[in-house]
Amino acid sequence: MPPEGAAVPVMPRFARGAVPAAWRAALLRVALAWIAIIIGFLGDWTTMARQWWDISTYNHVVLVPLILGWLVWQRRAELARLSPRAWWPGLPLVAGAAFVWLLGAVSGLDLARQAGVVAMLGACVPLLLGPRVSAGLLFPLCYLVFLVPAGEELVKPLQIVTADITIALTRLSGIPAKIDGVFIDTPAGLFEVAEACSGVKFLIAMVAFGALTANVCFLAWRRRAAMMAACIVVPVLANGVRAWGTIYAAQIFGVEVAAGFDHIVYGWFFFALVLGLVIAGAWRFFDRPLDAPMIDAEALARSRLLGRLEARSLPAGAALLGLAMVLAGARGWAAGTDALDAPMPAQVALPPVPGWTRVDYRPAIWWEPRAQGADHRLLGRYRDGQGRTVDVFFALYAGQGEGREAGGFGQGALMPESAWAWQSAGPAVGPGRSERLLGDGRVERVAVTWYRTGDLLSGSNVRLKLAVVRDRLLLRARPTAMLILSAEDGPSGSAAGAISAFRAASGPLGPWIDGVARIR
């Protein structure tokens, strides 16, 4: 027989439009909790909504709230047969989500902040409705992840994959071509697999669509896995074919005609075509009957595991009080770290380097890294006796946070919306992050980035974030420095050789950066 408190009513009352008494109070508590999370973290929700609306990569997310409502509505009749109750293990889940938000707040990582607030919404369900109802809402709760505007980290890898597919198809079609990073040189001209052509927005949208279809249209897990695999592989391959088609058309009709056609095709029309192909291929394998319920309330009610979990209940008022304390604690801790700024020197200057002389900064194409929110910025050029030149960019931050992130998106060596484009990863230079840039399709530049905070010297944005998080959670104020050494390939030698020679002359890089920052 079902565990105590898990009896299944004969008639699902939600189906008749009446809300059971036990559900009315529970739903009101969930609504109050969600309102508190939205209002208490309104800045994060506003930022997310702006990204959904303004950035084409995330335009599909505006449909996700409607999809979530539809998924819950599908389950309403079966859910009405379960009894909601507050559950104390939900509090650690809420606390974990709040901690993720706190990590984002203290490090300036918007992705963590946004993931945290979305996770807090989801964690309220087991806290206020219990494990049985949460099990019934498991897929909608997991689908909340698609509210988070994530995926920009995939742009560069997808650029490389698309370029590899494109060059293979170009050569296979008999067109002589050379590839250098994400640039493909053909008889008709030089083509770039730019960030906008990486296919990331279609991949993200297809994964969201694939997850929904796998749940709604399939029962067998193998078929669900196959659907998800198709929604990852097909858009990547299709994007490579699209890029190849543009290059092939350019050889026949010219670059301008091919580019115009590509701008027409490349968009939601392209996405609709790929989506239609995937649906057409999967249609005959749909195995969920049209009248099959999305969840089995009887099985959930009989589950002994859920019964044992449900025994850890607590009063609803205590659950709301605990939730309020967790939210207030996260906001308070974040507010305390906001005031953590390391003392800054009045001014900083690039030091002399043995064997190298400061010269006027006159690059062939203007290059100036971005360091938004930095308290000090320096940009200069050094030349040695062999005629090799190295450009040095230095930025010093009193702290890291929103609007002043040394490793944030759009910060560093590659200036967005400039004459410079990312070409490929550069030659290895110690622990720095090396990148090859191409200016106006003709000037090649290598830029190597290091971050310095405390004893850390690394080109890894992840390691920088972890170090900043550690310091701020411990309420410890430390400055952060960003150093970029860069050189252009030219008659005087390779860029990588010039940078290596400069590093050898300047001595250990950590103490050199500390000397510029005047912190040791």
TrEMBL record:
Q: Which gene encodes it?
A: xrtA
TM segments?
Answer: 21-43, 55-73, 85-105, 111-128, 202-221, 228-253, 265-286, 314-334
The molecular function GO annotations come to: hydrolase activity
Q: What NCBIfam families has UniProt attached to this entry? A: 8TM_EpsH, EpsI_fam, exo_archaeo, exosort_XrtA
Where is the protein localized?
A: Cell membrane
The membrane-topology field of this record reads: Multi-pass membrane protein
Cross-referenced Pfam families = DUF3485 (PF11984), Exosortase_EpsH (PF09721)
| Protein name stated in the entry | Exosortase A
* Assigned keywords, A-Z: Cell membrane, Hydrolase, Membrane, Protease, Transmembrane, Transmembrane helix
**The Methanolan biosynthesis EpsI domain covers which part of the protein?**
321-508
What EC designation does it have? 3.4.22.-
Which InterPro entries did the record assign?
EpsH-like, Exo/Archaeosortase_dom, Exosortase, Exosortase-1, Methanolan_biosynth_EpsI
For the protein in the UniProt heading, the enzyme class is hydrolase
